[in-house]
Amino acid sequence: MQDAAAVPGCLYIVGTPIGNLRDITLRALDILKTVDLVAAEDTRVTQGLLSAHGLQKKLIALHEHNEREVSERLVADLAAGKSVAYVSDAGTPGVSDPGVHLVRRARAAGVPVQVVPGPSAAAAALSVAGLEAGQWLFYGFLPSKPAARRKALESLKDLPCALVFYEAPHRVCECVADLAAVLGPGREIAIARELTKLFEQVHVCRLEEAGAWLAADANRCRGEFVLIVQGAAPHEADTDALRATLEILLAELPLKQAVVLAVKLSGAKKNTVYQLALELQKHGHPDDHPA
Question: Is 2 exposed, middle or buried (0-12, 13-18, 19+ CB in 10 A)?
Fold first, then answer.
């Protein structure tokens, strides 16, 4: 298989390890080796990654405080035929990290942009959490101020999908407390910290237990966190309305047809409707009795 050498005038958005420096793809190494410039959220972090893999490149800092200014310079370099790779400190650029403005500016200038996918803390945490998360919402970082954080959580509390958050160590305890207060103490939470690093830890418990678990050991509040909270339970069908619907249908139709129609009308689960229909048929409903 041939090396994936960088193409002149192309911007590469490169995913990098979230902890373990060996979690980097061969293609990412090929691109980082052959581009003309590497732009990085923190040049010191990226220099460590490059050195670990025997690479020496010219580094340019592009972070949240200078992204617009530096993006203009990089797009000019790209237009002149230079190839550029952008990496954030860890994981995938543009996902709770700088990089979005650079990509938008490059596309607006007609510069080709390619992704070199790599690790994602959110996906890594979901894979080892063991929570039922067929559907999930990645929120990223919640607001740092308590009132704004609780307001944001209020808007999420009725969603049936798992909720995925990033959190900093100095805020994780108060964040977990707000999660329990707003979303309810009974939901499960997976607390994933320091993924792929030496002190990786994943703990699953109820929200009402999470604060005590964190407080039991000061080390549990260190590192980078991914928090995954179980989604809201589906709203139970309105039993009274469902009963009324079934009584009308059973008066005119066989049980099987009545159940099929009631499921379509109510959106309730078929087993729930069927059991209620059997109960009504067994005990009789108003239309079974003569006036």
Answer: exposed
User: Per-residue b/e over 224-259, b at no fewer than 16 CB within 10 Å?
Assistant: bbbbbbbbbeeeebeeeebbebbbebbeeeeeeebb
**Tally of domains within the chain:** 3
Q: pLDDT tens across 128-175, in order?
A: 999 877 799 999 999 999 999 999 999 999 898 999 999 999 999 999
pTM attached to this predicted model: 0.78
**Which residue among 211, 229, 247 closes a domain?**
229
136/225 same-domain check: yes
Assess whether 184 and 243 both reside in one domain: no
| Residue 100: partners with Cβ closer than 8 Å, 6 or more residues away | 94
Residues 225 and 149 in one domain: yes
Residues in the chain: 291
3-state secondary structure of 38: strand
User: What is the extent of the structural domain holding 277?
Assistant: 239-288
Beta bridge mates, 193? 201, 225
- Tell me which of 71, 92, 119 is where a domain ends: 119
Q: How far is CA 233 from CA 152, 191, 270, in A?
A: 19, 20, 17
Torsion of CA 14, 18, 24, 25, to 10 degrees: -60
**Within a domain: 195:** yes
Same-domain check for residues 256 and 210: no
pLDDT, tens digit (0-9, with 9 covering 90-100), for 50-71: 999 999 999 999 999 999 999 9
**Is 234 domain-assigned?**
no
Q: What contacts 151, CB < 8 A, 6 or more positions away?
A: 143
